[in-house]
User: Which sequence fits this backbone?
């Protein structure tokens, strides 16, 4: 694949958590970038997130972008089933992960996601959240909970995920189409970023930083200098000629 972009990614444990349950994938050769945020505790959450990036990273891209998207969905569906079985074998409620991913083509960008890991698009000095969080209510605290754990209908304010890889038998991946124009920047991140930074602050950093490497480093540095309550992960992609 011809290079029409520059990209960079990083993931850290943060200041509070003992283990990093996030995982990232930067595959410029495939035009594929991924952030996965595991849930279920150490050895469960990191198993889920790393399984996602391992399977997506093993894909090949030889047909159309639509063939590639189908392969991505098939891989995530397979991981979904394996995580459900792993949870049953271990006797735990859930071993799961959120995921957000970006696929490059010359004509457009495709963003897929499950859960509340986010994708932003920055163009003409304006940032827009491409994804919509699969969350009910307003999250309180730092522990991610799936809505299937506990009451069938979480009360308003529960802030529980309504969708995650490994949470339910049928997995639904949402997709959004964005432009593919010179100068556009995309930010994929786990909620360790948006817990510490507002959208306006992320937008300001996109204005200041003119390379994917600089932007990624800046986002990680800001989150780490603040509370860094969760694992922190970011992947940025800047489109070029």
Assistant:
């Amino acid at each position: 694949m011809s290079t029409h972009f520059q990209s960079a990614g990083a993931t850290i444990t943060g200041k509070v958590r003992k283990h990093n349950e996030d995982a990232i994938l930067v595959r410029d050769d495939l035009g594929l970038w991924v952030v996965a945020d595991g849930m279920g505790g150490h050895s469960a959450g990191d198993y889920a997130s790393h399984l996602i990036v391992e399977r997506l990273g093993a894909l090949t891209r030889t047909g159309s972008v639509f063939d590639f998207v189908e392969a991505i969905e098939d891989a995530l569906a397979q991981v979904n089933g394996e995580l459900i079985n792993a949870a049953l074998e271990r006797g735990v409620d859930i071993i799961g992960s959120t995921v957000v991913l970006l696929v490059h083509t010359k004509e457009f960008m495709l963003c897929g996601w499950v859960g509340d890991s986010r994708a932003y698009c920055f163009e003409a000095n304006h940032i827009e959240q491409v994804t919509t969080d699969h969350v009910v209510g307003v999250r309180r605290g730092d522990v991610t909970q799936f809505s299937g754990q506990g009451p069938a209908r979480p009360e308003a304010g529960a802030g529980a995920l309504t969708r995650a890889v490994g949470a339910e038998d049928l997995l639904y991946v949402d997709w959004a189409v964005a432009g593919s124009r010179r100068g556009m920047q995309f930010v994929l991140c786990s909620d360790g970023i948006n817990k510490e930074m507002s959208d306006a602050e992320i937008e300001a950093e996109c204005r200041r930083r003119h390379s994917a490497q600089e932007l990624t480093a800046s986002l990680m540095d800001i989150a780490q200098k603040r509370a860094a309550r969760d694992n922190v992960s970011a992947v940025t992609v800047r489109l070029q000629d």
User: Anything to note?
Assistant: Helices lie at 45-57, 65-90, 191-194, 199-208, 212-225. The first strand starts at residue 5 and ends at 12.
